[in-house]
Design brief:
The chain is of the alpha+beta class. It has one helix at about 1-15, and strands at about 15-25, 30-40, 45-55, 60-65. The protein has a four-stranded antiparallel sheet with strand order 1-2-3-4, with helices on one face. The longest helix has 12 residues, at about 1-15. The two termini are about 15 Å apart.
């Protein structure tokens, strides 16, 4: 799912020009990271929220907004 979202955004928005961390929120068993990114084909910022399992570092949650 994560890889497909990246591919869809890449096709529509272009290449990543910049990415900046916003915040890290710690949960009981995971880490939720917030990011903003700028892409080459758009003036809009894309906001990513990605949750990782603390033990395995596997992606658990993905939310993208643009």
């Amino acid at each position: 799912m994560y890889i497909q979202m990246c591919s869809d955004i890449d096709n529509e928005m272009g290449d990543i020009e910049s990415i900046e961390p916003i915040e890290v929120l710690m949960r009981a068993d995971s880490k939720f990271t917030l990011w903003k990114a700028k892409y080459s084909k758009s003036n809009f910022m894309v906001f990513w929220a990605i949750g990782f399992d603390l033990e395995t570092s596997k992606v658990q949650d993905v939310l993208v907004q643009w």
